[in-house]
Amino acid sequence: MQLSSPRLRAALLAAASLTLVAAVLPPPEPLGIGDTLFPQLGNPGYDVLSYDLSFTYKDNKSPLDAITVIDARALEPLERINLDFTHGTVAAARVNGEPARFESAGEDLVLTPASPVAPNVPLHIEIRHTSDPRGIADGGWVPTDDGLAMANQADAAHRVFPCNDHPSDKAYFTFRITAPAGLTAVANGMPAALPAPRAAGATTWTYRTLHPMATELAQVSIGDSAVVEATGPHGLPLRSVVPAADRKRLEPWLQKTAEHVRWMEARVGAYPFENYGVLIAKAKTGFELETQTLSLFENGLFSGTGYPAWYVEAVMVHELAHQWFGDSVTPRTWSDLWLNEGHATWYEALYADGLGKYSMERRMREAYQRSDQWRAAGGPPAAPKAAAPGEKIGLFRPAVYDGAALILYALRQEIGEKAFDRVERRWVAENEDGTAGTEDFVRLASEVAGRDLAPFLKPWLYAKTTPAMPGHPEWGGPKSV
Q: What is the CATH number of the domain that holds 365?
């Protein structure tokens, strides 16, 4: 029988070529970029430039229908393309407009394009899949009382959408969220279009980031929410998302954000993104999270019971500080996490000190007394031990919080307050929208100080025990390193 349809002939030829390629390639396997703490996270061979994510929400117990579109650049010849993805079902995949074979290998989605992709050429990937909010112990989607939010740190974004799930590969994001009538959807960045009505009363909400973002910082909130808008320093748009029923109770907390931004800018320079706000969710996560431009908080933090007001404000400043340290300047590897959490803890402690509630010196002395114990349990701040299997947030131990802030305190004691402030400002200015690691920080501090600080900082960063604190012989004297 002769084929008379050019389109049908092309489809059959593409299918045949996929079968031939699959026949000569070895079985797919999960790949990684060699991160010490997450060896199979991230994928070699390409650089993601942008994600365009579409989600159709029904309820917080049903898989969302989703489309992930990735624009990337191939860095080397690719017979296969590995993406991090699990906890969803793939229906179809295309690479550069042609159907692609897809298989799972571990927590990787492995695509085999109709023909190998040459290096240094655009790479356009489209995947139709589901995104399953069930199984919250794995991270990713977080069911709330009225919908969903995201908590992707450290390695859970690929439980929501196919991606290159490592902070070293930042990209721009567009979100398109379709939700039933009566619900509001919000995501990182700025509204890219007016909410668009759909069939049966549904609405599609579109947002776009104006700065690149790590996958672990993506945020989508769907629920019975109120969006509270205000203006911060130099006209900065402030946009917070709270349960609609709790708006009046929470607005006094939201009104503090502008002053928090002002306080941070006075210490490290201009806020680095297009907008900022807090997302207060009715969920029990056990943590707050610095999702870019829209930090996630548990509603219980603001309930008025159990937490003094100064503490709540300090926590709000902690997540805000991450917008500079961790979001704009993103760690090159997960072992560089101390640069995120140490700095956020530093500014949290400095803010509490300014309120006269918990002095910086007292907090650092208490951290110094516990530091050896923290290092023994979780590793030194710049070389943390991997989390135990099934304990995804186990990486976030005291050594990378107060233990890392202690390093910054020691640095300030060693080089003086003025030089330390120059280090902080230059760190965020020179690495804005990029990635940086521990060696970069040591190099910059040395440049500002006018001498090699590696011999001083390396024991603080990597030693099993804590060095002597400059200027504080009363804290216990020299320790063995």
A: 1.10.390.10
Question: pTM, whole model, 2 decimals?
Answer: 0.93
Tokens of 192: 């890219």
pLDDT tens digits along 320-354: 999 999 999 999 999 999 999 999 999 999 999 99
Q: What is the largest CA-CA distance in the chain?
A: 93
**What gap in Å lies between CA 287 and CA 298, rounded to an integer?**
7
- Three-state DSSP state, 171: strand
As a whole-number percent, the residues of the chain with pLDDT over 70 amount to 93
pLDDT at 393: 73
Task: Answer whether 141's CB lies under 8 Å from 133's CB.
Answer: yes
- Note down the domain range covering 382: 329-475
Sort strands 237-243 and 225-231 into parallel, antiparallel or unpaired: antiparallel
Identify whether the C-beta of residue 345 lies closer than 8 Å to the C-beta of residue 371: no
Q: Give the whole-angstrom CA distance, residue 386 versus residue 396.
A: 10
**Cα–Cα dist 170/212, whole Å:** 5
Residue 331 has which token pair?
A: 């760690």
Measured from the Cβ of residue 246, the count of other Cβ atoms closer than 10 Å reads: 16
Sign of CA dihedral 349, 292, 374, 454: negative
